[in-house]
Amino acid sequence: KQEVTQIPAALSVPEGENLVLNCSFTDSAIYNLQWFRQDPGKGLTSLLLIQSSQREQTSGRLNASLDKSSGRSTLYIAASQPGDSATYLCAVRIPGRRALTFGSGTRLQVQP
Amino acid sequence: DTAVSQTPKYLVTQMGNDKSIKCEQNLGHDTMYWYKQDSKKFLKIMFSYNNKELIINETVPNRFSPKSPDKAHLNLHINSLELGDSAVYFCASSQEGELFFGEGSRLTVL
């Protein structure tokens, strides 16, 4: 059974810092991995999707990497801003199953 | 233009009542989902439909009944509501593996 873990559960950093959020999964046979952002009381916004054949994806100040063999993904946020404050969730999809398995998220607070 | 929209956004009701949440997507996706987010913010799949056909049913009580009248709509009906049903219910749709979520429907059972 696929399990997804995100560390740390919460993170507080001053504005301008570069930071890394971690995601690990127990079964390396994944179809893809997706990073989401959730603001309080809101839905999930898709940030990056990495297919199993890819090593990384970039969008603006965000870079997500995938190491399937070790069951890990990282989300790198460059030059963090207060507007980046949110909960970040990673989720994996396994072959033959359309639903995602989610981690419990990392709550990020960027202090101005 | 909202891609995945759910109604109502908030729902407060008494134990034992029956309620429905509606979801519509205008993305042309074939697959739709219902997820439940509990008080600890953990998201768990409940149901998935592909082209109106149920493909995932994750040991959800029979009191929960999804219905997909067409591939753009997936509704969730809940009978005999219990306190433990209080949560945020998210609808989502996907094509080619990437999921897009609605804003969520916060259900509070008193």
Would you write up a description of this structure?
The complex is a heterodimer of chains A (112) and B (110). Chain A has 112 residues and is mostly beta strands. Chain A is built from no helices and eleven strands. Chain B has strands at residues 4-7, 10-13, 19-25, 31-37, 43-50, 53-57, 64-70, 73-78, 87-95, 98-101, 105-109.
SSE arrangement:
The complex is a heterodimer of chains A (112) and B (110).
Chain A: E1 4-7, E2 10-14, E3 19-25, E4 32-38, E5 44-51, E6 56-59, E7 62-67, E8 72-77, E9 86-93, E10 101-102, E11 106-111
Parallel strand pairs in A: 2-11
Antiparallel strand pairs in A: 1-3, 3-8, 4-5, 4-9, 6-7, 7-8, 9-10, 9-11
Chain B: E1 4-7, E2 10-13, E3 19-25, E4 31-37, E5 43-50, E6 53-57, E7 64-70, E8 73-78, E9 87-95, E10 98-101, E11 105-109
Oligomer: heterodimer
Order of helices and strands of chain B: EEEEEEEEEEE
Number of helices in the DSSP assignment of chain B: 0
Task: Give the C-alpha Rg of chain A.
Answer: 13 Å
Q: With helices defined by DSSP (H or I, 4 residues minimum), what is the helix count of chain A?
A: 0
The unreliable regions of chain B are none
